[in-house]
Please model this.
Amino acid sequence: MRFVLDGDVIEIDDVDPNRTVLQFLREDLGLTGTKEGCAEGDCGACTVVVAAVDASGERLETRAINSCIQFLPTLDGKELLTVESLAVDEQLHPVQQALVDCHGSQCGFCTPGFVMSLFALYKNKSDPTRTEIDDALAGNLCRCTGYRPIVSAASEMYRLAPGDGDWIGLPAGKPPGEDESARVALLQSLAVARPLCIEWHNRRFFSPQSTDQLAQIFAASPDATLLAGGTDVGLWVTKQYRDLDTVVYVGNVASLQNVTVTDTHIEIGAAVSLTDAMPVILEHYPALGELFARFASPPIRNAATLGGNVANGSPIGDSMPALLVLCASLVLRCGEEQRLISLDDFYVAYQQTALRPGEFIERIRIPLPGGDDEVRSYKVSKRFDQDISAVCAAFRLRLDGGSVADFRAAFGGMAETPKRALRCEQMLLGKEWCEDSVAAAATMLDEDFAPISDLRASSAYRRKICKNLLTRFLLETTGTASMSVYSYGR
Model:
């Protein structure tokens, strides 16, 4: 495997496929600026930036990720930037200088992660709003500053930016764009026509480049772990201490990276990141904006994939309730065979799906909106940003006059799988869309679900919340309530 770090090509032919980027930086290279806090992608102390050649082949796409749960071989063909990459010859980067000037660091442990999240913002936005700044920092926790000076630094860094700076953002004498062109050329020189295969002791790592290669490898090793963004699989290693003997990485399969919109559907490849999938879905279903704004954090969304979220089958995965009410379906592939399955039929039991041995999700198909459908999804969690749901609800409504012509409701956190509320749906069909009808249908939620009590919420709380969210949907769609939670106070 080969990747670029600080202008040098790092070439490794003897690496544990389970080794994380964070371990490699700290233990192998001695680059200890990147910290380990939680080892699960939650605190942001380990944040780094990965740059890759974009679809145009002429520019670099830069994104922050959590190095603590990113496996090292996934960097093949990319450029890695750490907090040590930004300052050159004691010249601080504008991001670093802004944090100094605004007193954005106290104990300093979390500071490198904040620097890299701000650097990603610096590269991707020229004049971010306060909401965009808050979102960029949602994946970084600080126990000291109260965030105000860090938010101030996010604005100050643009004032310190040199007008003729290089790609990194430091003063440079070269013409604008030349540095980026050289970086693109270097990354393109690393490209190879064959899939990456790493063998280390008794472990193997495959990185196919086409769906045919993926299908062939996975059919031959159906017990292998399919790896996409690693935001869940990474925790199997860092928290559960599992050994993954065979890993098949789907992140370099070109066809799984595609997003297309046909006359009838949004087609999203299984390896498309949440960052890339969300804008396309929101273009057609803008009312899902609040859910997606609270879906994990940018470093997680940059790595995690919609296909992985669906395949994981977690009962608290935030995308599935919305996909269920949108009548999404999945194109599955095993060897040379494909089959289409409704998402309604995909979840069999707790973290068990209808996938057969050697079969994988190729793409997700979401029907385009029809008529005057109202679609909403709501998330309830202890923490507003970057938290796991206690309950996640989604609803879709179509009226004929004042009566319910079609209604779908789905919930996460209420059962062993993401699940539709079929009795509640049936109760509302043909009824007037009003408070009395919704109140009667809400009672059926007690028959649809038997939620458990856990650290996130009690069973009683979940039962009450799911009914309240149905009432909220009524109030919003009848114009009684219009302010979303996310816009409140902004």
In short: The chain has a mean pLDDT of 94. The two ends are 45 Å apart (CA to CA). DSSP finds 18 helices and 20 strands in the chain. The first strand starts at residue 2 and ends at 5.
